[in-house]
Amino acid sequence: MYHEIADQLIQAITKGQFTSKLPTEAKLMARFGVSRNTIRRAIDVVYQQGLLRRVQGSGYYINHVQLNSKHAVNLSVGAGKPLVKNSPRPTSKIVTFDKAIAATIPLATQFNVEADAEVYRVIRLRYMDAAVYALEESYYLTAVVPFLSTESVNGSIFEFLAETFNIAVIASDDYLSMTKLAEDQATLLDQKPGTHRLTLAQMNYTKNNTLFNFSKTIYADPKMSFYFHSAHLSSN
């Protein structure tokens, strides 16, 4: 329940319905017809995604993050979701979609499963404003993800999994690094082999700390911006 309320609050913030601060907990309780504890858990989800500032004794204020690039990625929300309000959603072109293939030893090590465990492999180009901005290679454990369709792979895979199987990303490990483009990667991104590009590797977990997805996204745009929200507790 609180995740659904958090999604509604995020949508309200994104659409500009709350421009300065959130309503009080009491008003939100009345609005959604839930307990204070549920509201607080929902607010905490929104806060963790970097959209709110907590001011002691005053409430939660909308965090207006200013980044120069409209292709900014909010790692607190999740890669693939635009940070800037009203940004266009990315579209996809499938390069490879393999169903139920055996995991390689390195991939099985990432997932901590046997080497012959079955995975879905999805390689796709991601577009923003009709221009390629990233090459994404991702794997999904079939033991956790029972089905992926071509339609879902063309759109938002995470949204499909959440709506169809109630599989949602509860936590993720994100690793940013500079990598050299291999020849096949360079061809897809219209770059020279050996060119360095920023790469995001992600390990995504659903409930019970279950790792279900490993992905690597290579960004073609050298001007990409990344945002991550962190809260620091005062010792005073």
Q: Mind explaining what this structure looks like?
A:
This is GntR family transcriptional regulator. The chain has seven helices and ten strands. It is of the alpha+beta class. It has two domains: 2-62, Winged helix-like DNA-binding domain superfamily/Winged helix DNA-binding domain (Arc Repressor Mutant, subunit A, Orthogonal Bundle); 73-223, Chorismate lyase, CATH 3.40.1410.10. The strands form three sheets. Strands 4-5-6-9-8-7 form a six-stranded antiparallel β-sheet. A two-stranded antiparallel ribbon has the order 1-2. A two-stranded parallel sheet has the order 3-10. The chain is globular, with a radius of gyration of 19 Å. The two termini are 35 Å apart.
Summarize the structure.
With 236 residues, the chain is of the alpha+beta class. The protein has 7 helices and 10 strands. It is globular and about 55 Å long.
